[in-house]
Design brief:
By secondary structure, the chain is α/β, with parallel strands linked by helices. The chain has a domain of 244 residues. It is 39% helix and 12% strand. Strand 4 and strand 5 form a beta hairpin.
Length: 545
């Protein structure tokens, strides 16, 4: 009996061991196969990347040949500056250094840094198949005798160009046609004096020519970043390549910390299709007034201002008369665009009052579609040297319902980085815990962010982040709940500040779409393209270390 029990136990043990082996052996083989496959795929991609880089080194992929850049010269060819000492100090083996050594080995030549010319230094660009890196220029590359006279980019001791001003954090991708207008407006109206720009690694365009105009003129300090400055996860492959949301959060956090380190305060975090403006009380157009007379301003997709339903809401607006009376006192103090009082001066004058006694101010957005007015209306109050049709802030005047969530969507934030608690970034609309809910009331906000759809040529030229079909554009362009020209005087103020000749030079490229539009006839085609690009990104992400 005991012998039979022992045999039974052995059978059970053997069965368990066999079952475990059946499970583990295929898994181990699968992992080994996967590892070898990935290693082989990455090796092939690395070889291709190196060959592509060597080939790319023979051509200037971006036109950055201005006399204001610190550059590298090999023989009769000119290349963008890379700080080779930075990798030695960190003990790292970055892709940029690896590619540099590959180039030097292949060509038998050393990269020699050329003398810095004039008063501006802008990060160079190295073209790579999977990512473009914008590398810092070290202080050691600057002549010590002239250091105090140079408005350095990427330095911790950059001098204030002017007293006061507002800082900015800007993440861009192929936005040159909008960037020129965006910078011109914000250096005029805020004024913006300090800007950190991060360029998406998939970008086809370099923003350096546009940025250099303003840096060279002493109008603004700029730092140009790539993923290595703030989102190393985006480089080493520990997350998917489809990382726009992660990149946004990482950039906002790092940019805020950087501005705080440099002693800056109020910082705006918006995109190139968004403009920070006064939220003045206008004489309401007929359609806007009729909406108010219906009672409370409501929209079914909002947690407040619900249209036609008596649900709880944050913004109270029982009648049009009460609405105007409630907001008239605080908003009557707002000066018009183009006046002698800038937004930063207004904040300073009211720094101890609501809302500026808080370290974070949530700003409502107002969405502008692409309905065009008569040409004479578009050109109204604009200098004759300016083609108003190229400016979104002049060409597109019609907007959605003020305060409605359906088109205006979530808020953006104006943050005092010297006071805000910079911890985990929640989202681009309400980044920090000190920020309130992302649904600020339009009718009691002192500032707002005007969000422009823009022209179809500009809209269709962008890639990846959203579906860009003609059908979708046509659905979003028809916004006609009134026209607003509050922003219009900024162009005249810009010309007054810098003169006609310099203003024309600074505004070069506004509204000019460099890449051909990706015209998609239907939403189905857009969906198909998006799916194909997603599959391609997933495939490439497996090959990264």
């Amino acid at each position: 009996m005991k012998k039979q029990q022992d045999q039974q136990k052995k059978k059970v043990l053997l069965r368990n061991v066999t079952g475990l082996l059946i499970f583990l052996v295929p898994l181990s083989l699968q992992q080994l196969y996967y590892h070898n496959s990935i290693h082989s795929l990455y090796s092939s991609l690395y070889i291709e990347n190196t060959l592509d880089y060597l080939e790319a080194s023979q051509h200037q992929l971006f036109d950055v040949a201005t006399t204001n850049f610190s550059r590298l010269r090999v023989g009769d060819k000119s290349y963008s500056t890379i700080d080779l000492n930075e990798d030695k100090q960190d003990g790292t083996n970055s892709n940029a250094s690896r590619n540099n050594r590959a180039y030097e080995k292949e060509s038998g030549k050393k990269l020699i840094e050329e003398e810095t010319i004039n008063n501006a230094v802008v990060d160079g660009i190295v073209e790579k198949p999977l990512e473009r890196q914008f590398h810092k220029i070290s202080n050691s590359s600057i002549n010590e005798e002239n250091d105090s006279e140079i408005n350095l980019i990427n330095t911790s001791d950059s001098k204030n160009i002017t007293e006061g001003g507002i800082s900015g954090c800007l993440l861009i991708k192929d936005d040159n046609d909008r960037l020129a207008e965006w910078i011109a407006y914000h250096v005029t109206s805020l004024p913006m004096r300090y800007l950190i720009v991060a360029v998406d690694p998939d970008a086809r365009q370099s923003p350096m020519d546009i940025l250099d105009r303003y840096v060279s003129a002493g109008i603004i300090n700029v730092e140009l970043w790539d993923d290595s400055n703030y989102c190393k996860w985006c480089i080493n492959g520990s997350v998917s390549l489809d990382t726009h949301e992660i990149r946004q959060k990482e950039f906002i956090g790092a940019c805020s910390k950087r501005h705080r380190e440099l002693g800056r305060t109020w910082t705006i975090m918006i995109d190139t299709d968004e403009f920070l403006v006064w939220n003045r009380i206008p004489e309401d157009p007929k359609k806007w007034t009729e909406d108010k007379r219906k009672g409370s301003l409501r929209d079914r997709r909002m947690p407040f201002n619900e249209y036609n339903e008596a649900t709880p809401r944050i913004c109270s607006n029982d009648t049009h008369i009460e609405y105007r009376a409630a907001i008239r006192t605080p908003r009557n103090a707002i000066p018009p665009t183009g006046s002698n009082v800038s937004l930063s001066e207004f904040i300073h004058m009211h720094k101890d009052e609501n809302p500026f006694n808080s370290p974070c101010v949530n700003l409502p957005r107002l969405y502008f579609g692409s309905i065009e007015s008569a040409p004479e209306k578009i050109a109204e109050l604009v200098p004759e040297e300016v083609d108003a049709m190229k400016f979104s802030t002049l060409r597109f005047r019609n907007h959605a319902i003020k305060g409605a969530m359906t088109w205006n969507r979530y808020s953006k934030a104006l943050v005092d980085v010297s006071r805000v608690t910079i911890s985990r970034v929640r989202n681009p609309h309400c980044p920090f815990s000190d920020c309130a809910h992302p649904f600020p009331c339009h009718h009691d906000a002192l500032f707002r962010v005007q969000h422009y759809l823009g022209s179809y040529e500009s809209y269709a030229s962008r890639r990846n982040y959203v579906l860009r079909s003609k059908e979708k554009f046509d659905n979003e362009k028809y916004q006609d709940r009134g026209a607003d020209d509050d922003i219009r005087p900024w162009v005249n103020q810009f010309f007054d500040n810098y003169g006609a000749k310099q203003s024309i030079q600074l505004l070069e490229g506004v509204g000019v779409v460099e890449s051909p539009p990706n015209i998609l006839a239907t939403q189905a085609e857009a969906q198909s393209l998006k799916l194909a690009e997603a599959q391609k990104r997933t495939h490439v992400s497996l090959a990264r270390p």
